[in-house]
Structures are given as structure tokens and as C-alpha cells.
Amino acid sequence: MNSPQSSSSSASNPLANVLSRESLFRLLPLVIVLIAALAVGSRSENFLTQQNMINVLLQSASLALMAMGMTVVLITGGIDLSIPSLMAFSGILGAMVLRDGGDPLVAGLVMLATGAAVGFINGFAVAYLRMIPFVVTLSMLAILSGAAVSVTNARSIGLEPGSPFISGVSAPVLGIPLPILIMFAVMLVLEVLLRSSLFGRWLFAVGTNLRAALVAGVPSRRVIALAYVASGLLAGAAAVVTTALQGAAGPTFGREGVVLDVVSSAVLGGVSIYGGVGGAINAVVGAILITLITNSMNLLNVSYFLTLVIKGIVIIAVVALTTQRKG
Amino acid sequence: MSQPFLQMRNIRKRFGAVEALKGVTLEAHAGEALALIGANGAGKSTLMNVLGGVYAPDEGDILLGGQTARLHSPLEAERSGIAFVHQEMAMLPTMSVADNLFISHFPTQMGRIKRTEVLDACRAALQRLGCTFDPRVRVGDLSPGDQQMVEIARAIMTDPKIIIFDEPTSSLTSREKQRLFDVIGALKRAGTVIIYISHFLDEAFALCERAVVLRNGETVGGGMMGDLTYARVVELMIGAQNASADREQQTRQPGAVALQVEGLRREGVLRDLRFSLHKGEVVGLWGLLGSGRSELLRSLVGLDPIDGGMLRIAVNGELRALPPGEARRWMGIVTENRRDDGLLLPMPVKTNMSIANLPELIGRIYPFVDGRREASVSQTYVERLKIKIADLRQPVRTLSGGNQQKVIVGRWLQKAPLVYLMDEPTRGLDVGAKAEIRAIISELAEAGAALLVVSSDIDEIMSISDRYLVLNRGRLVAEFPRGASKNELMAAAAGVGT
């Protein structure tokens, strides 16, 4: 009993191990989903055509914008469930401006401003009133969904065919539809902001360890509030794209399946739901993957509801695979 | 004299390489209170956790009423009549007093809780303690003193033969304290063995018949309280041969005032603190656990709220009055627990070192963090502090404790604050790393910074400080020059003579 035990030191350079294992875990879901999607898709003749690829990207654009917003909030360790309903609501307000003969540019700005304003309310409640993100944004989802139905009498607002708003937003540039370019441009800007702006660096610090960030002097509340503003703004951008592509805006655009798609996109792309890990590229890759799954299911004539079941299973599987269990 | 009811003989307990208890012997008699005295880390808590069944001893026997007792779990200890009133309250604040008292053993009938029986039992227990509140109120709505009473009520519900009180007065007002002492008196008269752990010697002398003093995991003395003096107990706590500590460096000449604290207070934690720190000096903040040391440091930089007070900080040679939230621009803080609120563990060394200084690393034209400058500045401090890393991109959690601590120091060095606040900067480090951190502290002072350093290790604080401030229950009770003796510091912190 009295013999001195050798205290086993675990200091033997574990760096290499950690890095390789973590990066493997991050790539795993991507690889699995890609293989699965291609396997399913290859059974259909249309899947690998250039036109279908463009279509997949076009269909991804709105989802990718929302997933990027979600990513910003997820990095702080929070969640923004109001994104899809905010997208629908902002789109409706903008479409109403267009219906009343408003300028297309004004309509677009109304959508963006609505998104940012609602995002500010979410952010204020979470950061300054210290409310739980889940509760705040779930309530906001209910408020906006309800408001969207009331404002429209549950009918969607169609834009006139040939409306300058549609042609302005969805026109191809160099053969590529503008929404795809918007998606990639926002991705690049956001990625740079996240990696090397003061806001981005503080965002990761807050999400990694809020208490340590406070001790280090990071203005944490402002950073958290700003994350929700960014998320709202991106929901507004998604509204612009969706309204133009659909030629309409309506309360059903933000229905339950969309929130699942947004969260799944971020998580599949490798954004951690525990905070501190993620990026714009992750969100876009995830959104494209989710769209691929949806697309494959359509080609295989799987019903919408069965698709929901499959997506739900996929997200649980990915989270199970990437969760690091302790002990 | 009767046979002691509790006998702990030659108890040994080892945690890894550290021997926490090196053969401790303790005896306690029915109807008496035994004061268990010792500095931080002397082994008091470990010993009581052995008695409470939390830790199994590696060696030694425990006898209850002359019979060897088997205490292999807290439940077995409870069945043997040992109750533990913990320092940290372990209660369910959103549930009622009755729920808290009965949570583990609700009396039931066909799966239904017998509500009236529970409430009657609670009222009886609370009445014994002189409490008048209803057992149906939420524990969270009670005052700290009443919460403590609930904790005690839970302990006496089982009619224990031994009750351990671990620092029970740290959150009590003086009136609540008196009530607690009355309760302990009543328990003694009923024949219960009381083991009373407290840093406050005055309480021990007022309340207890007998004392045992531990130092470094050994019983170093004790006896009847009437035969002991404060001075003798303090000497036993710290060891006579140890009364003068070695100095590691020469006296420094302090410069102008860097920080002046005026009337800083926070209800129940900090009481009207007034002091100043000078450029080029290390001030040791000495006090026992719970005296408000960490709280003071955190309040100075606005991490904890304050109820009043002002800081004056020397900005460009002129003292400017500022609230803590703004004054922190000129201060750097190393917190007590680096893993908890110091480091961004999964993030690279570089990120951890630049996080406090990021606004300075923004390019003039390009409005983003200048990665190259970030790396070169961090590299400078890695070299200056001799931090052992393979790569600046290495996650900081892969470093040893000493290197992690240096990363945090390096973070503030980058910012070059006027004042450094350091809370237990060498905790958990090995001997070599401790010495390195102490050397860095000296260098910072010599470079003209003001440092306020908290340490529970008296030898360490005596080796680095130019001056001492002593805290006791949130009050500054003494200030000593560099030449102060260990006994003076110990006595002031334990509240002797105040």
C-alpha cells in the first residue's frame, strides 16, 4: 500500500491522434450521405445530367442561405428555430409591396430589413434578457407562422408573371442563375467574416466557452445578439431568392419540413450543435446534400412524408456518429 | 473519562501520487463537540469524507461505540448514524422543503406519497431547530441561513449519533450563526457527537470542548480546548520550524499608484474595501477559503456585480475614476480554474493567446484580424515565457498545466495591462512549473506592473509578495509589510484578535 505508485502521465503527444480522429469524424457523414445519394441517384437516368445539377444548386440556394444563418447561431451554442417562418413572413411582406405596385428593390430591402429586425428581437431576448434560445425562437416561429397566415388569409401571394422582381433575382449571369451566385458569394463573404473578422473570432470564443470569453474581455452579449441579427438577415435573403424562384410568397413556405432541413444542413455539413465549431462552407455543403437527398427521393417517387422520416433518421444518425462520448 | 464513541485509527488515504492522509488518528466523545482544525489542504475534508463513506481508506480502522464499522458508501455511513452537513449546499432549490428532506425516502402507500405524514415529520424536525417556516415553501425562496437549517434538518431527521459540520457558518449572518450554535448546543445535550470543521478559530473556541489539528495529512496535536491557546493552535497548523519562509528575491521599490480601490462592496461578500496597488509591486492577497479573495478579483474587472464602490486607475499618469467594467481595459486577470473559465480548450494556442488583444490586431486598411501579426506576436510571447509547444495551431488542451497557465499569462502580456490579478496562478502545477510562474510574476513587477496575487499556499505567497492584504469574511482586516511572519498572517486570516 505504501509503495509509491507511478503516476501515469498522459502527456505523450496526443496531438496527431486527436487531429486525425476528429477530422475523420467530421468527414464521415459527408462521405456516407454522398455515396448514398449517388447510389440512389444513379438508378435514375436524369440524376447526373448537367441540368439536374444546376437544378440541385438552384433548389439549394434558399436552404443554404438559411443554413448559413443557422450556422452563425449554432456557433454561439444557441439555435434559431424561427428561421423558416421568418423567411416566409419576410417574403410575404415583400410580396405585398410588389402586389401594391412597389419597386422591386424596395421589396427586396423590406424582406432583408424584416429579417434583420426580427433577428434583433431574438438576439436581444437571448443576449440581454438571457432567455433560452430554444424558447425565444420557438415562440417567434409560432408568432411569425400565425402572423403569416393572418396577413395572407392563408393564401399565397403570387407575383405577376414577368415581374421585374423575378427576372431581376433569377436571371442567369454567364449562364448560371443568379441565386446560385448569390449563395456562393454570401458563402465566401461569411466564411471570411467568420474566420478573420473580430466578430467571427469572438463568435467562436463565445461558443467554445462563454465564461472564458467573458474573462478574456470579449463583449459576449453584443456578439450573441449580432449572431441572431445575422441569422435573421440571411432568412431575409432566403426570402428574396425563394419569392423570385417560386414567383410567389405564402405562409406554407416555412412549414415544418423546412426547419428540419435547415438544422440538418448545418449538422450534416459538420457544424456542431454544441457550439464553437462550423463555417459557411459547411452549411452550403450540407444544404446541397440535403437537397440531393430530397431530389433523389423525388426521382424515386418517395412521398414527402416518407422523405421526412428518412431525413429525420439521417440527422439522428449523423449526430450519434459525431457526438464525442466521454469516459 | 468515558470511552470515546468514535475512534478513527491510523487512517491512510492516497490519491495517485499524493498522500492526503498519512495515518490520522481521531477520537470523539458523545455529547461533545470536536473541532477539526487545519489549513487548506491539511486533509480535513478527506478525513471526513472517509468517515462519511465517500472515500474508502487505504488503511486504518473506524470504531463506533467500540465496534469496527463498515462504511463503504454514504448510505452505509448514514445507516451507521453518521450525518454530514456539507459546506456546499446540495439541495434542490425549486422543490419544497419537505421534498428536500424526504427526497430519498418518501414514505409511500401503494406508490402514493403519504403527504400528511411527511409534512408532520418535517414540521417536527424544523421545530427542533427553532424554524418557523412552512415545509411547503420552495427551498430557493429561503434565506441562506434557513437553507442551512433545512440541510441540518435533513441531517438530524435520521437521529444520527455523529453529525459533521463542514464550514457551516460561511454563508450565515451573525444572528443565524447564533441560532446554529444553539442548535448544536441542544444536540450535544442530547448526546450527539459533533465534529465541527471551521477556519474560524474563534468559533472553534466558543463551541467546542476538544480539538484535533491536522497538517499535511497528519495529526499534529490537539487536546481539550481549555488547555490550548490561539497562538498554540496557529503554530500547530503551520508548523513551528516553518514560521519564517525563504525569500526568493530582493526587495523591490514600488512606484506610483496604479490602482486605487474605494469602498468596493457587494452584499454579503465584500465589505467596503479600500486599498491601492503600486506600480512595480506584488501584493499578496491572503485569506482563507470563502473570505472573498476570488470574488474581489472578479469584481475588480466587472465579472461579478458590485453594489457600490469605485476604482481609480492610472491612465497616462493620471488617476481616473472608472467603474470596473471600463477599468478592466487596463487590467488582466488569471482566474482560479484555467480549464473552467480561462482557456478555450479545443482552440489553438494562438487563438487562446490573442483573444484578449484581438482589436489591436485588426489591420488598418483590411478590416480583419491580421493573421501574420497574430502569429508573430503570439510567437514572441511563446518564446519569452518559454512555452513548450509543437505548433501555434496546436489545441491548448494538449498542453501540460504549466504551459496552459503560461498561455493565459501570455495572453495578458500581449495586452500589456497596468494591473495583473492572479487567482491561484500555480494551482495544480508541478514544482518546476510553479517556480517558473513565480519567476514570471517577479519579472512583471520589475517591469513596472502592479500585481495582486491570491494563493492558498502561505510559503508561496510569502516568497513572492512585497506587501500583504488580509481578507476575512469579505473585510480587509490587516495589511502587513514584507517582513510579516507566518503567524501574523495566519492569525489575521483566522480572525484572531478582531
Strand content of chain B: 25-35%
Major sheet of chain A: 2 strands, antiparallel
The SSE string of chain A, one letter per element, is: HHHHHEHEEHHHHEHHH
> Which protein chains are joined by the largest interface, and how many residues does each one contribute?
A-B, 29 and 36 residues
Report the principal-axis shape of chain B: globular
Q: What's the domain count of chain B?
A: 2
End-to-end distance of chain B: 35 Å
| Assembly form of the protein | heterodimer
The number of distinct helices of chain A, counting runs of at least 4 residues, comes to 13
* Number of helices in the DSSP assignment of chain B: 17
* Share of residues in helices of chain B: 25-40%
Q: What is the radius of gyration of chain A?
A: 21 Å
Q: Mean of the pLDDT scores of chain A?
A: 84
Question: In order across it, which strands form the biggest sheet of chain A?
Answer: 1-4
Low-confidence stretches of chain B: 242-248
Strand order of the largest sheet of chain B: 6-9-10-3-11-12
| CATH homologous superfamily classification of the largest domain in chain B | P-loop containing nucleotide triphosphate hydrolases
Helical coverage of chain A, percent range:
over 70%
> Which class do the helix and strand fractions of chain A yield?
mainly alpha
Whole-number radius of gyration of chain B? 25 Å
